[in-house]
Each structure stands twice: as C-alpha cells, then as structure tokens.
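U., I forgot to send this yesterday:
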Amino acid sequence: MIPLRWPAPLFMALVVGLAAAGKAPPVDFRLEGETLRLDNGMTFVLIPVEGPPVFAGHICFKVGSVDTVPGNTGIAHMFEHMAFKGTTRIGTKDWGRERPILDALREAGDRLTRLRATGKGSPEEIERLKAEVARLQEEQNRYIEREEYDRLYDLAGSRMMNAATESDFTRYYISLPANAMELWMLIESQRISDPVLRDFFSEREVVFQERITRFEDDPWGKLMEHFVASAFIAHPYRLTPIGWASDIQALTMGATEAFFRTYCAPSNAVGVLCGNFDVARAKELIRRYFGGIPARPDPPEVVTREPRQETERRIRVAFDGPRMLLVGFHKPNWPSRDDLAMDVIERLLSDGRSSRLHRRTVEGGLAWVAQALNGFPGTRYDNMFGVFAMPAEGISYDDLEAALYGELDRLKAEPVPEEEMEKAKTRILAAHLRQLSDNADLASLAATFQHITGDWKSIQAYARDLQTLRPEEIREAARRYFVPENRTVARLEAAPPPEEDRP
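Result:
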C-alpha cells in the first residue's frame, strides 16, 4: 500500500529506484476522496492530500475538436480564449453601459464575418461594416478592464494559471493557497455561468496567428495535421483543435456563444480540488457557487465511428525543413487491455538508450531520433499507435521504414523476455505514480478518468490491470494491429522547385 501522504522526496526515491532496478513489485494504493454531484449535473471530485496549505483547482469540460464539424473547426479553442475575457462582473467598469455596445458589435462584426466568408458583400458594405466595427470596439474599450482574471488570481498568490483545448477536453487549471478557495469558486462559477466574449474579433486574429505558428510554419504540426486527416476518413479525430484557417476566420460571436451553451453545460463538466483544504468547507462553497448554475440539456455525443481501414494509406507532406516520418495504426482506447499492451510496447520501443528502436535506428545510424507514441490524437474514442522518426543524413525513407517494421514484426514473432517486460511495466507504473504525487497532475488525471469511465478512482484500475498484463498479450496485440492494411504512413519532404526553376 502506497499512501499519497508520503513526502515527495521519499516517494520519488521509491519510484525512481524501482524503475532503475527494472522490477515490477506488486504495488497497490488507495485513493482517498469524495465525489459530489450537484442537482444541475456538475460533478466535483475532492481529493485531500496532506502537505502545505495549497490546492490545485481543475475544471474540465468534455468538449474538444472531436465535437466540431467542418465549418466550425477551432470553435472549442476559440471559446477557451474567450473564457479569459471576463463576465458581467469581472473585466468591466460598467456593464450597463458596455452591454448595448457589445450587442451592436456582435451584430455588425458577425455580419461582416459572414459576408467575407461567403464573398457576397459589396465593397461598399464591407468598408462600412469595417468602420462600424472599429468604431464600436473603440467605444467598448472605455469600459473594459483587461487581464482582470490574472490580476485577481495574482493577488491571491496563484501559480500555473492556464487553459488547454485538446481533441477530447477543454481544461482550466490553477494552483492557489487554501485560503483563496472561495475566490476560486466565485471566479470559476462565473466563468461557466456568465462569460462575456470581449475582444472577440481581435482575439480571433490571435488564434489565426497561433495556427500559422503551430501548423503552417512548424514541421511537426504540419505533419500531424495531414496525418490525422488521412488516418481518419470519418471520425472527427481527423480535425485538430486549432481548426482550419478558413473556419477560424469565419467564426462568429453568435456561433461561439451557442457552442458554449451547448457543450459547456454543467452536466458536461468535472471540477477537481486536490490538496490540503477543508473538505466540508469546500462542499459548502461548491453548493453555494456552482449549485445555482442552471442545468442545461446534455450535449450531443459523437456517433460517428471510424470504419475499419482496409488498405495502407500513404501521403507526402511538402515542407522545406527536416525530413520526418510518422507511421500509425488504429487501435482501441483504454480501458481495453490492448491499449495497456500498446503502453508497454511504447516503452519497449522507445524508453531510453536501451530501448529497441534506439538501438536499431539511432545507434544503427539510420535515424536522428525514433519515438513510439500511444493514444493519439485523443483518448475518448478508439485512437492510434504511432512511430515517429527522423532519417539520418543519407538514409532513405524506405530503409528507415524497413527497420521500423522489423522491430514491429519482432514483437509479433517473439515473446517479450520476462525481464524486459517487467522493466517496461515498472517504468510505466513509476510514471503513473509520479502523477499522483503532484496536486495539479492528480487533478488533471482524476478529471480525465471521471469523464472517460465515470469513476475517477479507475486510476487505480489502470495500475492494477497493468501489473497483470502478460507477454503473450503483447504479441497478440502486435499481431492484431501492426498489419499493412491498418497502416497510415506520412513523410515530410521538401517541396519540389517551381516548374520554371527545374533543370
């Protein structure tokens, strides 16, 4: 039994020591905490941990790019940005005067957006609306108090305040002293119930520039975006959280508000408090601040399922940069035991200098780097196992692919030696336990497991099931999924020169 109240240095010494020894001891642990479900459907997980009087606050909505469709891709990410702009009480000097200006700005800005997106507006109308939007924005600026969330939280001694939009989830998280818990309840409950989309059109440009930086100008982002669009032909995992450029530029305030009302319903949210705090007081405050948020209908579930892949897919992505290779295979998500097997395979292939891929490709002079990746682009639905590699100078993609497939075929042909298997499982377990020793990591993990399984304590089931995994299950999973017809291959290569420049 490993109590979570162990001092961090001792805890870390234990898990690092076990990983270094390559042994998989029978580890068990019990997570102590409570689950509170409000009448409006919102769920809270309260995890008390002994230590300094601080806590991590984490609110996770089960909404991400998987819940978007062509035409509004990027809208979940856009709302994440908007959720920092304040409420009718936070971020405004005078909401009564600001509101009519914002309403007029929404009408003019959304009409301008639609005309630009469809190409139907006359030049005169476009110019008139541009001037009207600029005038209204300047007028609204007189009433805006920007960065108010940051100021309030900074005064309270916050750390790590941020948010993230993923394929599956949108998260808002922070660490605070325990005496700031009521402030957190006040701010976060208003963020959910009463957001105001200030600076929408200027922030939309920020998001558009973020897309250029992270996908248009970044080789990894470029490769991954094209890869998932090829690997998934039906399931919305083919859409990245940032969204397509034309969709970002076509986003309207009205559509973003409607998306918020649909997907950020209390029943679609999990809040987690993890740290040294008064649980009874926390429950009282949760009911006071979050209990009054009106219930809304549950958002629609994703019903599309990716059809079985029947033939290998190959794409070449043109980019003037380093050569990159990504090979991926469809597979189930957790709690399937095949997903556990893939976690072990990931470690066997690319965990450190003694791993199989490193020895064969990096030490063998075939690649600068080779890394296995399990469970992308999301975890709510069946996902992918992949291998990423960068060919060394003078090495062809064909030679590098052959080496990668050689290691995958070896997993299908040979049982994993017991010592190597135990070492991989122990390293996974050590990483899993490390997350439990940090308030913020544990809060994030609890929210994820609560959404996926309906019980945050299934964190324990993952560790328990991992330890029972057998070598033959590794071979069976490799045989089942590492087959050519289930394979998608993407190569990042320099674009050919323009025709007039060719010899």
